[in-house]
Write a structure and sequence with these properties.
2 copies of one chain form a homodimer.
Chain A (H helix, E strand, L loop, with lengths): L27 H12 L24 H10 L5 E2 L2 H6 L6 H9 L8 E3 L4 H14 L2 E5 L19 E5 L6 E5 L4 E5 L4 H10 L2 E2 L12 H6 L7 H4 L2 H4 E8 L2 E4 L13 H4 L8 E8 L1 E2 L3 E9 L2 H13 L6 E5 L1 H12 L9 H10 L6 E9 L1 H17 L3 E4 L1 H8 L4 H9 L3 E11 H21 L9 E10 L2 E11 L5 H18 L18 H20 L13
Parallel strand pairs in A: 2-4, 3-4
Antiparallel strand pairs in A: 1-2, 5-6, 6-10, 7-11, 8-9, 8-10, 12-14, 12-15, 13-14, 13-17, 16-18, 17-18
């Protein structure tokens, strides 16, 4: 597979491939009816996006001679100032980004988009930016959902977005140490293709897998859906080269070290404000020869969470444990049922539910196992023992297979909903097990309350749901999804108000502001609450030491 | 058990309990004969330590009124300026420390030793130190072997050593999240006693376990002997409170987070230069109900290392894998044989070695399993398959039990050897598997070469040996021990010359300057080689942001 990531193959104001939309298999009408009923709206509006040619385009702040100089630094075909490239790179893929793009509410776009091919070119770009007081925005796959690649100039004279997707070579594979080193602009499928050809995998499959890059995963401290087995970015990340405005930083790719604080944990989560990650070394696993994804149902979220906790605290070898709350389990079953006579959660299952007393609002746990047939069998036995011991009902491999087959598709649905004035956003956090239920209930209620408070459309209820997506011996992440009517007169204000209240609630109730999406612009104002005034001062001191003029990705990460 | 860590119960110029020495079981003469033969010395000299009352004691740089003020800040009985306390706290427990203490070669000692009992008192101390331009040296168990607690004033007017051993309470135990929070001055046995009473363990058993503290483990990024199961400090460390001269830093004890760089990895390895760790939250495991320690022999280090690698890369549940090279295996068997007719490695075993062709210079692998009988049995089977498949010979539980029973004793031997002019020092590093053998051979040779170059005593050979002590999927640590005649006319110069050449060799050959001992004063000059100029600048920027006057542990960690 040679995937073509040319920018014109991708949506500039939506998710993924230009030629791909969410496939409703002819069930569109059923979906709109379902949403109209839920949200209490008689007829969902048509809210198409502003087409490219009608988008307002801010004037270019770079002079012709500056653009010429840039072309001299790289080459003419890797410096772009056209409408498409500038708009394509203006934002990431958050709800906040899409509503602005779709309505043409654009304040800033990059003045130039450049595609470097080497660390040397990046050094030259930092020197150019220093001389001309320009912001540099590192851009990998551009899939940030927290405003991480927004083209903000801050106090500087303009913005150059630095698209790293041409730096996509695998540089080395160390089969003895099970590590690989690659250029940071490599996309997930490109990296996996190379590794799998040799029998290895990084195993990092975030929902954005197809449209995100190695450097972005590390810069934003991402976590893949199978992070239990393969590790979040902080775990698989073994070393990097970072080009900063003050020089090049190499972190030693050592398995562990006591030589002072670990610079790798300053690089992971740095979100481009210290410099460009140009190369990274990552830890691999052999390609699994067996996969087993299956489902269990529990009568209560708390029971299911205890099962997840027990599995993890017993260190059972699992790739994924995904526990939906009752709201999400209900939504998934409804969504699957739309336009269909029956679904996995309806007929046989509901008879079984009645029989064993799992209740009317069951919670779905998906278990993903990867490894060898021996290891997955052993894990399956251990998990069945724990889950069924707690009253869980095994519902077989079908829900697991269904999830696996469509695991990258959901973001496409957001574009379809936005065409009809329906918003869908997600946010996520993590906390200790002893605080998990409190946080789950509090944030769930806060999301519903805030949506109601800031939405005066519809007579129904917003759809609010959550699942545990990543778990650890000491705690787990909570991933919330909410569907609501867009306040068409002021959608950005609506979103900001909801976001502010919910983020406050997360921090006040012991959660982290993000488990795996990052900070960007959206969570920046909560960094002081999370890290403390002193913690933020420490990070700013690091930033100032490598980027004294604040050229790197201004306005992100640090308040 | 209520262990009494009163400072007068401990040696001030040697290892451990005042009342305890290395027990040679009447085999002293045999040991001296063995060492004389190896090192080529006719008669080992008597080199007793200078007694306390004859030690030179630098004049106190604090005025009477400053000492009175300190007593006012804490209480009179927690501020000490007497000879014993000042000398006890002058150094840690490195070879470099002991030779200076034993010869009375003391330039600096703390002017006062204080025992705070709360974060508030520490805040008051930082304010006092700021006003009077005094250095503050955080002191936990004082077991640093890299000069981490040396009383250096640097450019300041004096030194207050801050002994945290009175801050030793367990504050909370979260049985759902499997975490505990304790004050950082708690000693290993105190913490484990509390945890084990409730059925849990931290499982962190470094060789210094009895004489080191929670805060020190984190500050120096330590690793226990069973780190494969329980994790090194960087893994079990979940959160901390740090009192800095600029305020208090709390790091959120979250299982994982994408809210920017992880401050916990700035605290871990900070070695007191950012502030005092006052409390820490750590991740626990249930107390194991089964333990199994046993041995295998391999014909070559490389074969054994491949087995260790395979076990770890298969993610077999092991607590410890310890592979001695041929030199260490030989030394251990010799050491055990001294004054005895036979040993585990001599009779039956050597017959077996002959039989199966494991060779004349076998390498010993100790495997430690902890968990339940089910889990340890499963691991035992997996390990036997891998080890015996590679030609390893199982030699039963006796060497494992022997090691386990004496695992904290070796440091006492150093004092006995120093009484007879024999030096023993250790150093350690880590690297990727693909570089492990190169690093092992190069450093081993460099140690022998450097000892020969800087030692003009004896006609024999220094004893140089190594083992793999901690292993990871991508690499392992190497722990070197070397025994040599002390150059009595200039032992510090001898040690410094050897240390410098070997440290250079480690960095030049891709190793980290320390896997689990830390940096302190001894490795400070290699930090730029390890982290790069920019990396050191980043860490200095962090330090300056929380400690602008450089009061905290000057001269340590940062060059």
């Amino acid at each position: 597979v040679c995937v073509d990531y040319s920018r014109e193959k991708l949506k500039w104001n939506g998710w993924g491939w230009l030629e791909q939309d969410f496939d409703l298999h002819g069930r569109e009408e059923g979906l709109w009816e379902f949403l109209q009923a839920q949200l209490g709206i008689d007829d969902l509006p048509d809210t198409p996006a502003v087409p490219l040619e009608e988008m307002p385009l801010p004037e270019n702040r770079l002079s012709e001679s500056q653009i010429e100089d840039l072309r001299g630094l790289l080459s003419a075909d890797r410096v772009h100032v056209d409408r498409y490239e500038r708009l394509f790179h203006a934002f990431g893929k958050s709800y906040h980004d899409l509503i602005r793009l779709r309505r043409g509410e654009i304040d800033e776009v990059p003045d130039a988009v450049v595609y470097p091919q080497s660390a040397d070119e990046l050094v030259a770009l930092t020197q150019f930016a220093t001389t001309h007081h320009l912001a540099l925005v590192p851009y990998g796959g551009g899939s940030s959902v927290v405003g991480g690649v927004e083209a903000l100039a801050g106090r500087l004279a303009g913005v150059i977005t630095v698209d790293l997707s041409r730096m996509n070579r695998v540089l080395s594979l160390d089969e003895e140490s099970l590590t690989a080193t690659a250029e940071a602009g490599i996309y997930g499928p490109q990296l996996e293709e190379h590794l799998q050809k040799h029998g290895y995998t990084l195993g990092h499959y975030p929902q954005s897998f197809q449209f995100s890059t190695l450097g972005g995963w590390i810069a934003a401290r991402g976590a893949g859906q199978q992070s239990n087995r393969y590790g979040a970015a902080t775990k698989f990340f073994a070393g990097a080269t970072v080009v900063t405005p003050s020089g090049i930083l190499h972190s030693l790719a050592t398995p562990n070290s006591a030589a002072g604080p670990d610079l790798r944990h300053l690089i992971a989560g740095s979100e481009g404000v210290f410099g460009f990650i140009t190369e990274a070394t990552v830890r691999l696993r052999p390609l699994p020869t067996a996969r087993d994804y299956r489902g269990f149902l529990f009568s209560e979220f708390k029971t299911g969470a205890d099962v997840v906790r027990e599995i993890i605290q017993e260190h059972v070898d699992v790739a994924m444990l995904r526990l939906s709350d009752a709201g999400e389990t209900w939504f998934l079953s409804q969504f699957k049922s739309i336009g269909k006579p029956a679904s996995w959660a309806s007929k046989a299952t509901s008879a079984a539910l009645d029989l064993v007393g799992v209740g009317e609002n069951p919670c779905l746990m998906l278990v993903g196992l990867e490894g060898t047939t021996t290891s997955t069998s052993a894990s399956r036995v251990a998990i069945a023992r724990i889950a069924m011991g707690a009253g869980g009902i095994p519902i077989g491999a079908k829900p697991g297979k269904g999830w696996y087959g469509t695991r990258f598709d959901m973001p496409y649905l957001r574009d379809a909903l936005l065409d009809r004035g329906v918003g869908v956003d997600t946010l996520e956090t993590a906390t200790n097990w002893s605080n998990l239920h409190h946080l789950h209930q509090t944030v769930r209620k806060q999301i519903a309350t805030s949506i109601r408070r800031h939405t005066h459309v519809g007579t129904g209820e917003p759809i609010v749901m959550a699942h545990i997506s990543h778990s650890y011996p000491d705690g787990a992440s909570l991933y919330f999804t909410f569907i609501f009517p867009v306040a068409l007169e002021k959608p950005v204000a609506q979103w900001k108000a909801i976001k502010r209240e919910v983020s406050d609630s997360i921090l006040e109730n012991g959660g982290t502001i993000s488990h795996h999406h990052g900070v960007g612009t959206d969570h920046r104002d909560w960094m002081e609450g999370e890290k403390g005034e002193l913690g933020v001062a420490m990070l700013k001191a690091v930033r100032d030491s490598v980027d004294p003029h604040g050229l790197m990705n201004p306005g992100k990460l640090l308040p």
